[in-house]
Amino acid sequence: MRSKKALLNIACSLLLQGLTVVSAFIIPRLLISTFQSSVNGLTVSITQFLGYLVLLQSGVGGVVKASLYKPLAQKDIDATSGIIKATENFFRKIAYITIVYVGILAIVFPFIGSHDFGYAYTFLLVLIIGIGTFAQYYFGITYQMLLQADQKNYIYAIVQMASVVVHVLLVVVLVRLGAGIHIVKLGSSLVFLIRPILLNVYVKRKYNINNKCNPDKKSIAQRWDGFGHTIAYFIHNKTDIFLLTLLSNLREVSVYSVYVIVTNGLKTLVSTIAHAVQAAFGNMIAKEEYDVLNNNFKAYECFAHMVTVTLFTSAAVLVIPFISIYTKTFTDINYIRPVFAYLIIAAEGMYCLRQPYHSVIISAGHYKQTRNGAFIEAAINILVSLVLIQFWGIIGVAAGTLLAMLFRTFDYAVYLNKNILFMRFGRFIKRMCVSILSITCILLVTNNVMGIEMNTYFVWAGYAVYTTLAAITITLGVNLLFYRKECHFMFAMGKRLIFSSKKAKGLPS
Q1: Spatial separation of the C-alpha atoms in residues 29 and 19, rounded to whole Å
Q2: Which of 202, 223, 244 is the last residue of a domain?
Q3: How large is the average pLDDT for residues 438-456?
C-alpha cells in the first residue's frame, strides 16, 4: 500500500509539474511580449521579496511532517490533532505578520527595486501579489503538510492542477482583452486564493481532527533546529534575484528568470519524486524497518542520479537553442548567455543529486545534527555570489550557487552514511564518478547538437527527442554496468506496482 501511494503521488505530482512547466513558459513570454522585460522583472522581484516570508516558518514544515509520521502510522487521532492544532496556531500568527510585511514592502519596494515605474504603480502591484501569500499561510499550508505526511500528496496535486489550468486560461484571456498588469496579477491572486480553501474543506471532511484539543507544542519545538535548513533553502532560491535587484537591474532579473524557468521545471520534476518517497521513508523509520529502508534507498539513489543526469545534461545541450527561439522577439536586452546557462544548470543539477540524502535525513528528523552544514551552505552561497557579482554580474551569482550546492551535497552524503544508513563513504564517491562518466558520454555523443542553428520549436523538438533518447540510453547503459543489482530492483518494483495496480482494477496483466 505504501508503494502504491508513492506511485500515485509521483504520477499526480509529475502531471502537476508538467502543467506548471508549461504554465511557466507561457505566462512569462506573454508578459514580456506584452509589457516588456522590465515589468516581468518587477513582478519576479516582488514575488521573490514576498517569498522571504519563508524565513518565518523557522523550519517548521519539515519538523511537522516528521512529527506526523508516527501518529499517522499508528492511526492516533489525538496525537495527530494536537500536532495539527499547534501548527495551525503557528501559521495563523505568520499570516498576521504577512499582512504587516506586505504593507511595509508596498511602501518601501518602490524605492529599492523599481526605478522605472511610478510609486503608486509599484505600491499597488505589491499589495495585489501579496494576497495569495496571505491566503497560503492563513488557510491551507497546515493541511498540505498533513496530506504530504499521510502519503496523500496526490490530493494537493489535483487541486493545484485545477488552479494552474484556470490561472493560465485567465491570464491569457485578460491579456488578450487588453488588461493591465495589475488586473492580470489580481486575477492570478484570486485563483490561488481558492486552492487553500479547497484543501481546508477536504481535510475537515476526511480527517477526524479534534479542533478543541490542546496544541502539542512539543511537536514543533525542533523548528529552530530546522531553521538552518530553511535559511539554506531560502538563500538557494532567493539570493540571486535579491542581489540582481539591488546591484544590477530589472532586465537582468528578467534574463535570470527566463533561464530559471527551465532549471526550476527540471528541478521540480526530481524534487517531486523526492517528496513522494520522503513520506514512505518516514513511515519505514517510524516502523524501524531499517533493512527495507537501506534497500529502497540504494534503488532510489540510483534512480535519482539517472533521472538528474539525463534531464540536466540534455538541458545543457538544448538550452541555448531553445532560449534563442523563445526570446527571438525580445529586443530590449540580450537573453543569450551560454556561460550563465551552463553554470545554473550545473548548480540545480547538483541540488537534485543531493535529494536522496536530504530525503532520508529529513524523514529521520535529524535537523539539529545537520543544521551547521545548512548554515555553511547559506554562507557560501551569499558571500561568494556577493563578491563575484561585482566582476561577472549574473554569471557570478550562478557560480556562488554552484559552489554552495557542491559543499552541501558532500556534507549530506557524509552525515547520512555515517549516522543513519551506516554505509561506506566510498560508495558515494563511486556513485558520483559513475554520474560524471554518464554526463561525459552524453556530451560527446550529442556535442554536434549544440552548434546547430534552430529557428522553430518543431526543429528544436526533433533534436530534443534525439538528445533525450541518447541521454536515456547512455545513462541506463552505464548504470547497468556498475549498478546492475539496483537497476534490477527498480525494474522489479515498477513491475510489481504496475501489475498489482492492474489486478486491483480488474484489468488483464
Answers
A1: 16
A2: 223
A3: 85
